[in-house]
Predict the 3D structure of the following.
Amino acid sequence: MRTAAKLLVSLCLSALASVAAADAAQTAAAESRPAYRLQPGDVVAVSVWKETDLQREVLVRPDGALSFPLAGEINVDGKTVEELRVALAERLKRFVPDPVVTVAVKQIGGNRIYVLGKVLRPGEFPFSSPVDVMQALSLAGGATSFAQVNDIVILRRENSGQRALPFRYGDVERGKNLQQNVLLQSGDTVVVP
């Protein structure tokens, strides 16, 4: 009987160790991903614990700001959800003692890429997780038989203007020069001549 009990305890400890290892792996994976950054067009749900008048969904306006009662105008363009939560809590402290603020992204409306040119389905594509060039081409149905796939260009707007990033499909297809298969940023345009 003692052997069976020891075996049972051993199995339970082994199962707990497996669960703990899986949780640690998930946490490490989540921490290695870049945090989502808010964009114009996103909708966030904000709630303040025990304050029913301070629970609502808020749209991030085209200028990158949002309005929230008692907190006023907050510029959130490019901020993480946690940064917004902290900013709201800080502004609400004047009116609510020790506010417990929760912020969740309800709708992602700001992350969009564009694929133009000789693809089967050119257009605008919203995305909620990172998308690279090959994945964007896949979203657009792939290149047509007339496309010049080794002359693809990614157009990216930056503070200094617009930049063109070359992309040679044939290289990536053969597993070479993989660094050109960049993660696309919101607003990027993939042009397939």
Q: What stands out?
A: The mean pLDDT is 87. The radius of gyration is 24 Å. The beta strands are 43-48, 51-59, 65-68, 72-75, 101-107, 112-117, 123-126, 152-158, 161-167, 189-192. The chain has two domains: 43-107, 112-192.
